[in-house]
C-alpha cells in the first residue's frame, strides 16, 4: 500500500468513526434539542484547540451478539484542548452510540483521559449523556464505574473537576458527578436519578415524571446536586467559561490575576443597599458587588439554600471566594442545606488557594424539630470543620447579626480568621435581645406589675449591653470596627498582607469531617 492509499484509508476510517451512531441516531439526538458529543466539545473549547484521542477504540463486549456490533469510539469522545486559554482534558459521552452506555472500554477511555489530567495537572471536564452501565457487559460495566469513581476521589482537591449533565445520567452513574467539584445542568435536558420513575412505580407505587424526579431544576433548587443551572447548552458552556476565569488549573497554582477594576459605586452604594432598620432584609449580593472588582460576582448554587450566598469575585484583580449570609432569605439563618453548601465551597477554595471573604448577618442556626431530626448538628458542624481546617487567607466582616453558634461558625477569630472586621451596626451576642431577655429575666418579667413594659425595658437593656460590636472588640475577637464604606479598602489590605500566609495544620493521614 502506498502512503497515499494509507492516508486515504485513514481518512475513510476516521469518517466512519466520526459519524458516531449514524445519521438516524444523530437526527434523534437533535430532535430532543441536544447537540452531539463532538458539537458540544467544539462549542465549549477554544476554536481549533480540540485534539481527539482513542477514536478507534472498540468495545470488548462479547455476549448478546455484541461481538458482531461496531460501536464507534465505544460511545465516548475524549481529548485535550483549551477553554479561554486554559488547558483542559475533556470527555463527552456520545448518546448516538448505544445510548452512550458505559462499557468496559468506554470507561477505560474516560480513565485514560482522567489520568492524563492528573499527570498534566489540568482540570477535567466530563459531559454526561448516557443510559448508564451497558447492560450487555454486566460486571465489566460496573467495574468501569468503579475505576472512574476511584479516579474522581484521587483527583479531588488536586485538579478542578467539572461535570456537565446533558442528557440522562442514571443509576450509579450519578456518583461520578457527585464526586466532582461543579455540576452543570440544563433545563429540560438534564436528568439525574439513582432509580428512575419506572422502578419507583414498581417498588413504591409512586408516580412521577423524569423531570419532576431528577430534572435540572430539581437538582439546582431542591437536592443541591447541581451548582449551575442554564436554559440551554450554549448558556451552560458560557457559564463554564466564566467559571474557568476564577479558578486555577490545579492545587499548585493560583487563579490567574486580572487587571484590577473599581466597583460600580454609583449602582452599588452601601447606604442605599443596607437598611437602617435592623429588622429589615436586604440582598447581600449587592453588598458583595459594592466591593468586588467591576461589581462582578459569579454566584454558585444560586437556587439552592438561598439563605447563604457563595461564589467568586475578584478584588484588585485576584480571585476571592465569598461566603455570605443572605438576610433576604429566611433572615440568612444557617440550616442543614446552607451548611452543606457553604462547607463544600470553603473546602474547594482552600484546596485551590483561593482566599475566603465571609460576610456575616444571621440570627444563628435554624431551630425546629425538622432541622434537629434532619441532623442540623452534623450538617452545621461541617462549616466549623471547613473554616477551621482552611489555611488560605480568611477575612470576615460582621455587618449586623452575629448570634450564637452562627457567630462562631461564620469564620470567627476563634476558627482562626486572620482578620475580623465589624460594622458599627454589628450585634454580636449569644442570642437576639428578645430571646435573651425572655430567658434571663423571665422571673422579673413574670413577677412585674407590668410584664410587657418590663420585657421591653429588659430587651433594651440587653440590646445596649451586648447587641453591638464593642464587647467583642474589647476582647480582641474583632480586630477593627470600621465604617461600612471602608470595607473594600480593609479587605484589600488584609488580603495584601496575607499573601505570604503560611499555616500548617497538624500532621495526619486525613481528618474526619462530619460527612
Ligand atoms: C445498553 C443501552 C442502555 C444501556 C440505552 N441503551 N441504555 N444499551 N445499556 N444501559 C441503548 C438502547 O438500547 C438503544 O439502542 C439506544 O441506547 C438508545 O436508547 P433509547 O432507549 O432508544 O433512547 P431513549 O428513548 O432516549 O431512552 C433513554 C433511556 C433508556 C431513558 C436512557 O434507554 C433507558 O432507560 N436505558 C436504560 C437505563 C438503565 O436502566 N441503565 C442502567 C442503570 S444502572 P438501539 O440499538 O435501539 O439504538 C447503572 C448501574 C451503575 O448504571 C452502577 C455504578 C456503580
Question: Can you walk through the features of this model?
Answer:
This protein has 515 residues and is an alpha/beta fold. It has three domains: 210 residues, Alpha-Beta Complex (2-enoyl-CoA Hydratase, Chain A, domain 1), CATH 3.90.226; 192 residues, 2-enoyl-CoA Hydratase, Chain A, domain 1, CATH 3.90.226; 34 residues, no CATH class. It has 21 helices and 16 strands. The strands form two sheets. Strands 1, 2, 3, 4, 5, 6, 7 and 8 form an eight-stranded mixed beta sheet that branches. Helix 16 links the parallel strand 13 and strand 14. Helix 13 runs parallel beside helix 15. The longest helix has 17 residues. The model has no long low-confidence stretch (mean pLDDT 95). It binds hexanoyl-coenzyme A (HXC). Hexanoyl-coenzyme A (HXC) binds next to helix 5 and strand 5.
What are the main properties of this structure?
515 residues; 2-enoyl-CoA Hydratase, Chain A, domain 1; eight-stranded mixed β-sheet; 21 helices; 16 strands; elongated; binds hexanoyl-coenzyme A
Amino acid at each position: 500500500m502506498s502512503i497515499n492509499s494509507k492516508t486515504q484509508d485513514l481518512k475513510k476510517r476516521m469518517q466512519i468513526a466520526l459519524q458516531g451512531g449514524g445519521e438516524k441516531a444523530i437526527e434523534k439526538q437533535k430532535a430532543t434539542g441536544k447537540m452531539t458529543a463532538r458539537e458540544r466539545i467544539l462549542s465549549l473549547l477554544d476554536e481549533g484547540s480540540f485534539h481527539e484521542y482513542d477514536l478507534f477504540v472498540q468495545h470488548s463486549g462479547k455476549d448478546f451478539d455484541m461481538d458482531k456490533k461496531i460501536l464507534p469510539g465505544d460511545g465516548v469522545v475524549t481529548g485535550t484542548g483549551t477553554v479561554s486559554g486554559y488547558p483542559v482534558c475533556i470527555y463527552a459521552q456520545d448518546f448516538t452510540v448505544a445510548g452512550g452506555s458505559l462499557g468496559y472500554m468506554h470507561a477505560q477511555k474516560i480513565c485514560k483521559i482522567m489520568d492524563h489530567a492528573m499527570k498534566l495537572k489540568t482540570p477535567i471536564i466530563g459531559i454526561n449523556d448516557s443510559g448508564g452501565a451497558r447492560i450487555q457487559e454486566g460486571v465489566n460495566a460496573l467495574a468501569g464505574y468503579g475505576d472512574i469513581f476511584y479516579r474522581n476521589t484521587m483527583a479531588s482537591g488536586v485538579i478542578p473537576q467539572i461535570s456537565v449533565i446533558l442528557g440522562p445520567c442514571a443509576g450509579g452513574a450519578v456518583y461520578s458527578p457527585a464526586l466532582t467539584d461543579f455540576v452543570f445542568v440544563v433545563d429540560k435536558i438534564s436528568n439525574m436519578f439513582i432509580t428512575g420513575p419506572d422502578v419507583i412505580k414498581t417498588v413504591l407505587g409512586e408516580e412521577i415524571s423524569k423531570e419532576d424526579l431528577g430534572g435540572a431544576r430539581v437538582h439546582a433548587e431542591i437536592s443541591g446536586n447541581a451548582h449551575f443551572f442554564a436554559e440551554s447548552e450554549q448558556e451552560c458552556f458560557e457559564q463554564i467559561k466564566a467559571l474557568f476565569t476564577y479558578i486555577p488549573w490545579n492545587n499548585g497554582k493560583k487563579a490567574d490575576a486580572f487587571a484590577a477594576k473599581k466597583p460600580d459605586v454609583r449602582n452599588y452604594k452601601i447606604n442605599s443597599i443596607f437598611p437602617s432598620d435592623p429588622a429589615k432584609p436586604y440582598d447581600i449580593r449587592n453588598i458583595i458587588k459594592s466591593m468586588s472588582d467591576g461589581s462582578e460576582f459569579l454566584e454558585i448554587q444560586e437556587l439552592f439554600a438561598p439563605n447563604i450566598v457563595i461564589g467568586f469575585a475578584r478584588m484588585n484583580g485576584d480571585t476571592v471566594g465569598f461566603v455570605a449570609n443572605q438576610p433576604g432569605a429566611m433572615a440568612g439563618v444557617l440550616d442543614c442545606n446552607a451548611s452543606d453548601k457553604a462547607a463544600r465551597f470553603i473546602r474547594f477554595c482552600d484546596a485551590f488557594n483561593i482566599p475566603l471573604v465571609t460576610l456575616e448577618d444571621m440570627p444563628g442556626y435554624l431551630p425546629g424539630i425538622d432541622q434537629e431530626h434532619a441532623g442540623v448538628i452534623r450538617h452545621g458542624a461541617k462549616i466549623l470543620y471547613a473554616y477551621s481546617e482552611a489555611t488560605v487567607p480568611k477575612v470576615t466582616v460582621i455587618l449586623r447579626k452575629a448570634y450564637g453558634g452562627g457567630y462562631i461558625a461564620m469564620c470567627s477569630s476563634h476558627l482562626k480568621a486572620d482578620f475580623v472586621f465589624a460594622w458599627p451596626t454589628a450585634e454580636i451576642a449569644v442570642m437576639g435581645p428578645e430571646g435573651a431577655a425572655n430567658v434571663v429575666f423571665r422571673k422579673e418579667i413574670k413577677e412585674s406589675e407590668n410584664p410587657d413594659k418590663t420585657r421591653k425595658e429588659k430587651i433594651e437593656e440587653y440590646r445596649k449591653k451586648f447587641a453591638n460590636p464593642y464587647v467583642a472588640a474589647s476582647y480582641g475577637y474583632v480586630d477593627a470596627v470600621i465604617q461600612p464604606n471602608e470595607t473594600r479598602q480593609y479587605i484589600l489590605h488584609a488580603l495584601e498582607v496575607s499573601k505570604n500566609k503560611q499555616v500548617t495544620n497538624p500532621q495526619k493521614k486525613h481528618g474526619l469531617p462530619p460527612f
